[in-house]
């Protein structure tokens, strides 16, 4: 019986060997794949095991963390004035993942980023607990507050403020907003809040970041781009040169007259006067005269038809290709297919204010290690040059006229601060049946010639009486208070 | 491997046994390690989870030490020539199992779903009962050949135990699908664990008597010795019982274990390879046949082939009326997250396995917290127990002892393979417990009895042969020699 016994011994040995091989396969060959599998809850547990780093504005954290009492996630995110800052921070939730800045800079905030690897290893050896790094933003708390509170008074809308010389985002507000703190945890109340915020249950869609992700017809504010195209292409070389603009003007290739709003002096008006009173006929004809290609080229130089990464992605604004001349005319006054994010229109104002140079908009100034060492710093970068400095100054003087004695007088600041701007009232809906959007884009110039802020405001107040909606009445006061906030915080 | 040439040597022992040292002191030294290692592990869990030495450390250390000491004394007294490795290895596994169970007791998640909390204390009581049964085996089973007398009673007993979970009102459906438990009052018992031993006694007794008939009376066909029809009878019966277990108790593991044990013992008894071929064919046919209509078995196979899909079905719900379980995938994640060296005691998240985390799936906790290194060590310990058991079988001087020892060792090996292989995703998952490591009274008590029997057989095998009796013939020759 001993021969088969020895074979059974061998067989049992092979069984154990098979288990050993399988174990090596699982715990050595496949280990990393299994360990980092996103469905493996340990990934999430580890992520919430250490306090998350903070997002910082003006040297103060706008986020925090709290220890949870239930479940296997130790810490959850908290937000200070969450609704106001939501378009900047996005959210990070134990149940619903993360978005925007919280998601993009997750590696730094959790401390898992490769750039922190050496430090983490050192901490592990010295027995220090792992910590997350900080994200320092370019935002300006006073400007953000002015923007958010201004919108809260007026209804739905968005504000973007930029520093023209660098592209730093100073304010990024969207209304209605939501408090990301209400969905940060993993409990029932978080689930309930999440359900309430869902677009399906909430027509206001508070989680939509209107400043970056919603495109609106820009209306008359787009005339700034059209004016820039006219100057750059030499159609008209000066603000005070009479344009060839008949009134009424029948759009090229059609029998339809392009109308102006009210009885305004638009016949053969100079571009200054046309911008001052927002003449559709003048700028519509400029667009038709320049043609689709030249208009598109100029719009693209301002950033149209391209997503921006701030690093939070913005939707691409639209200026169409392959249009009939009449469609180009309509597009050139910000109607037809033309659509822009509030960020895009702020970039337009910013490029004009910065003497024609468009800076890449960004909101992360630097990334910090847990001990506040700088890991990475963002430097201002030039995106394009839509205007020559001379033409930019011509356009500036036109925009300053708008605020001084045109449609934008409500944005005047005084005290030696000159404001250049442009109103817009964009029609939308079928046959323009819905309430128009009120726009205002502007920049502020201080006595010393510096221009610390450019801003774009859009208000989409559905409940307001139609006649009352105009860039001047609704949007310009918000732009004004944001510019004042930036100027005051510089003092 | 013709049996005719081998049969004359059957009754001679192969291992020289005269003057064998008892090795009791070796056993004692090893036992010290087997107690100290779990005590350190226990302290480690406390430090990792609560930053302090666990309050029960002294009690636990003394308890385990006392049990091991009493076990050792019993061996020293009643089985002085027994194999010195079996007791320390079983003690080590039992101790580590207690630590892992205690570690999972600390999990709030498992406490919430009633899978943890005070389980380690229960397990320590079960261990004490197990050691008591172990000692009882040594004290009352003076010679393992006594068991031979109970061959057919064992058969009836084993069948009774196996079919017990099917009795209405007694069977407890507490695990996902498999009906291998009975409920008596507040206790749940897995009769299959005891049936394993009783069945081994029956097979050993039966095969010892029938092996010549089975081995010799066969026709040669295509290089294989085919058994006669009437000799096939008992094999068919065992096979049918396995299939019945599979169909009615829906437990692939138990079924495979019993049939596999029978084939091993049959092969050892008859030395006929053809039996193995038959066995494999029949088990394959049985498994495939049952799997073709039994949804529970199908689910297990699918979970094995694609655990991630099964996980998602379990998470997102399915409307096919079958209970899907995420355990298979959770166990794989636990192993993978442990990596080479593991997270360290108390720092893993194997509680995510939830149901049966401290019993069927306890190896995953070792995988995560002790890593590849720890699991390999544990698998090698199991391998050592099995090989010591087979060595005992080799050394045994009587065919009954040989068959019983190899049957028990083989069943032990198959059980470890089926459970560990299932948890690690090598084969489909079945509901069985890791011997000694897993939480569960039936398992611990039955396995201590198993070790007790192996120790008894090895003691008999290694005991110095009695001094040769004076040969009456020699004396007579001397008497008639002329002086």
Please explain how this structure is put together.
The complex is a heterodimer of chains A (491) and B (483). Chain A contains 18 helices and 20 strands. With 491 residues, chain A is α+β, with helices and mostly antiparallel strands. Chain A has a five-stranded mixed β-sheet with strand order 2-1-7-15-16, with no helix packed on it. In chain A, strands 9-8-20-19-18 form a five-stranded antiparallel β-sheet, with helices on both faces. In chain A, β3 and β4 form a beta hairpin. Chain A starts with a helix and ends with a helix. Chain B has 483 residues and is mainly alpha-helical. Helices cover 66% and strands 4% of the residues of chain B. In chain B, β4 and β5 form a beta hairpin. In chain B, α13 crosses α14. The interface between A and B is large, with 36 and 53 residues.
Adjacency order of strands in the biggest sheet of chain B: 1-2-3
Distance between the termini of chain A: 100 Å
Low-confidence parts of chain A: none
Distance between the termini of chain B: 51 Å
Label the structural class of chain A.
alpha+beta
Question: Percent of residues of chain B in helical segments?
Answer: 55-70%
Strand order of the largest sheet of chain A: 2-1-7-15-16
CATH level 3 topology of the domain at 211-364 and 382-490 in chain A:
Beta-lactamase
Question: Strand count, sense and closure of the main sheet of chain B?
Answer: 3 strands, antiparallel
CATH superfamily annotation of the domain at 211-364 and 382-490 in chain A: DD-peptidase/beta-lactamase superfamily
Rg of chain A (C-alpha, Å): 28 Å
How many beta strands in the DSSP annotation of chain A? 20
């Amino acid at each position: 019986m001993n021969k088969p016994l020895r074979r059974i011994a061998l067989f049992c040995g092979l069984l154990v060997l098979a288990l050993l091989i399988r174990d090596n396969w699982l715990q050595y060959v496949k280990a990393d794949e299994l360990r980092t599998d996103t469905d493996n809850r340990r990934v999430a547990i580890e992520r919430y095991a250490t306090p998350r780093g903070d997002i910082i504005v003006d040297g103060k954290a706008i986020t925090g963390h709290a220890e949870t009492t239930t479940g296997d996630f130790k810490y959850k995110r908290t937000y200070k004035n969450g609704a106001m800052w939501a378009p900047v921070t996005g959210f990070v939730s134990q149940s619903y993942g993360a978005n925007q800045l919280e998601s993009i800079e997750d590696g730094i905030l959790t401390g898992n980023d490769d750039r922190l690897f050496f430090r983490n290893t050192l901490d592990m050896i010295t027995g220090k607990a792992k910590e997350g790094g900080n994200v320092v933003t370019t935002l300006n708390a006073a400007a953000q507050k002015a923007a958010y509170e201004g919108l809260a008074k007026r209804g739905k809308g968005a504000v973007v403020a930029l520093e023209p010389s660098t592209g730093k985002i100073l304010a990024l507000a969207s209304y209605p907003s939501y408090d990301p703190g209400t969905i940060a945890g993993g409990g029932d109340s978080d689930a309930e809040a999440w359900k309430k915020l869902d677009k399906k249950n909430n027509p206001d869609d508070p989680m939509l970041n209107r400043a970056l992700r919603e495109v609106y017809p820009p209306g008359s504010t787009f005339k700034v781009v059209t004016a820039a195209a006219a100057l750059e292409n030499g159609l008209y070389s000066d603000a005070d040169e009479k344009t060839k603009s008949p009134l009424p003007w029948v759009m090229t290739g059609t029998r339809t007259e392009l109308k102006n709003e009210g009885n305004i002096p638009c016949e053969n008006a100079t571009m200054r006067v046309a911008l001052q009173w927002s003449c559709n006929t003048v700028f519509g004809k400029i667009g038709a005269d320049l043609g689709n290609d030249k208009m598109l080229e100029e719009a693209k130089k301002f950033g149209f038809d391209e997503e921006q990464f701030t690093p939070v992605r913005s939707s691409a604004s639209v200026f169409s290709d392959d249009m009939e001349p009449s469609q180009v005319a309509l597009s050139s006054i910000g109607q037809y297919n033309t659509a822009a994010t509030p960020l895009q229109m702020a970039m337009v104002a910013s490029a004009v204010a910065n003497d024609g140079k468009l800076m890449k908009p960004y909101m992360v100034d630097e990334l910090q290690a847990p001990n506040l060492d700088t890991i990475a710093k963002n430097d201002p970068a030039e995106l394009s040059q839509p205007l020559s400095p001379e033409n930019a100054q011509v356009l500036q003087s036109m925009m300053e006229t708008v605020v001084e004695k045109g449609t934008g007088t409500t944005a005047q600041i005084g005290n030696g601060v000159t404001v250049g701007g442009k109103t817009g009232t964009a029609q939308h809906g079928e046959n323009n049946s819905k309430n128009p959007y009120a726009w205002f884009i502007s920049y502020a110039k201080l006595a010393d010639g510096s221009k610390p802020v450019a801003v774009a405001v859009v208000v989409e107040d559905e409940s307001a009486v139609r006649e009352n909606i105009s860039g001047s009445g609704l949007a310009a006061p918000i732009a004004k208070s944001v510019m004042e906030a930036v100027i005051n915080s510089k003092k | 491997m013709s049996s005719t040439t081998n049969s004359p040597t059957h009754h001679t022992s192969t291992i020289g046994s005269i003057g064998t040292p008892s090795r009791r002191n070796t056993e004692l030294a090893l036992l010290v390690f087997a107690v100290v290692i779990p005590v350190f592990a226990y302290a480690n869990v406390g430090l990792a989870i609560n930053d302090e030495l666990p309050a029960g450390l002294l009690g636990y250390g003394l308890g385990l030490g006392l049990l091991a000491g009493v076990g050792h004394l019993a061996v020293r007294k009643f089985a002085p020539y027994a194999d010195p490795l079996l007791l320390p290895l079983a003690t080590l596994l039992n101790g580590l199992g207690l630590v892992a169970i205690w570690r999972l007791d600390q999990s709030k998640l498992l406490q919430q779903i009633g899978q943890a909390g005070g389980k380690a204390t229960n397990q320590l009581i079960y261990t004490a009962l197990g050691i008591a049964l172990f000692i009882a085996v040594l004290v009352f089973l003076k010679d393992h050949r006594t068991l031979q007398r109970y061959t057919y009673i064992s058969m009836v007993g084993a069948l009774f135990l196996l079919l017990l979970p099917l009795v209405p009102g007694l069977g407890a459906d507490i695990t996902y699908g498999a009906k291998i438990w009975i409920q008596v009052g507040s206790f749940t018992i897995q009769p299959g664990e005891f049936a394993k031993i009783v069945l081994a006694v029956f097979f050993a007794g039966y095969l010892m008597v029938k092996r010549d008939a089975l081995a010799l009376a066969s026709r040669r066909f295509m290089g294989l010795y085919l058994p006669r029809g009437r000799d096939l009878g008992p094999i068919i019966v065992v096979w049918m019982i396995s299939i019945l277990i599979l169909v009615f108790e829906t437990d692939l593991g138990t079924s495979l274990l019993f049939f596999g044990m029978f084939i091993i013992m049959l092969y050892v008894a008859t030395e006929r390879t053809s039996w193995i071929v038959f066995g494999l064919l029949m088990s394959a046919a049985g498994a495939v046949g049952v799997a073709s209509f039994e949804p529970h078995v199908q689910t297990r196979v699918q979970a094995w082939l694609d655990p991630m899909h099964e996980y998602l079905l379990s998470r997102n719900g399915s409307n096919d009326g079958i209970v899907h379980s995420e355990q298979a995938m959770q166990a794989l994640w636990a192993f993978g997250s442990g990596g080479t060296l593991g997270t360290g005691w108390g720092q893993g998240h194997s509680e995510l396995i939830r149901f049966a985390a401290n019993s069927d799936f306890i190896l995953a906790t070792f995988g995560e917290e002790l890593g590849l290194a720890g699991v390999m060590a544990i698998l090698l310990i199991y391998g050592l127990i099995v090989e010591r058991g087979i060595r005992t079988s080799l050394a045994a001087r009587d065919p009954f002892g040989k068959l019983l020892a190899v049957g028990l060792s083989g069943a032990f090996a198959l059980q470890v393979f089926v459970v560990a292989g299932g948890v690690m995703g090598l084969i489909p998952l079945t509901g069985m417990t890791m011997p000694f490591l897993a939480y569960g009274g039936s398992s611990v008590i039955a396995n201590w009895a198993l070790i007790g029997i192996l120790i008894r057989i090895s003691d008999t095998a290694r005991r110095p042969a009695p001094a040769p009796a004076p040969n009456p013939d020699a004396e007579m020759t001397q008497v008639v020699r002329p002086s």
